[in-house]
Design brief:
With 94 residues, this protein is mainly alpha-helical. Helices cover 69% and strands 0% of the residues. Helix 4 runs antiparallel to helix 5. The protein is elongated.
């Protein structure tokens, strides 16, 4: 009986740890919501989704100059994410 209890405890711990690590690494979509769309409409991003790497690198760097707070790793992730979307980001731009 006791053994089952410990197994259960380990499972709960595992779920908790997984849950927390997700919080530490917000997805690119979450970053867009919390970083970008707090300053301006998502439309401004949606209408530029067919742009390539150079455009997004320059644009994201310009947003940082305007006061966006983002760590360098997230910045890279978001540039990669945006340049890969083509004009098809239906969850975001419907
Ligand atoms: C501190 C406020 C702020 C944040 C945060 C911000 N922006 Fe902006 N953004 C602006 C302003 C102001 C403009 C319009 C002036 C300009 O284009 O320089 C703009 C314009 C843009 C444009 C249009 C540029 C063009 O070529 O016409 C795009 C695309 C854009 N932002 C994307 C983003 C993305 C992606 C993020 C998140 C990674 C973001 N912005 C975060 C303030 C912000």
């Amino acid at each position: 009986m006791r053994k089952i209890f410990y197994h259960f405890l380990v499972l709960i711990l595992f779920v908790l740890i997984m849950g927390c690590s997700e919080d530490n690494h917000p997805s690119e979509l979450e970053m867009l919501e919390t970083k970008c769309f707090t300053c301006h409409s998502r439309l401004i991003v949606c209408k530029n989704l067919d742009q390539g790497h150079e455009y997004w690198k320059n644009t994201v760097k310009r947003m940082v100059k305007k006061g966006m707070e983002i760590d360098p790793q997230s910045e890279m992730l978001i540039i990669d994410f945006l340049q890969g979307q083509g004009s098809d980001l239906s969850i975001l731009c419907k």
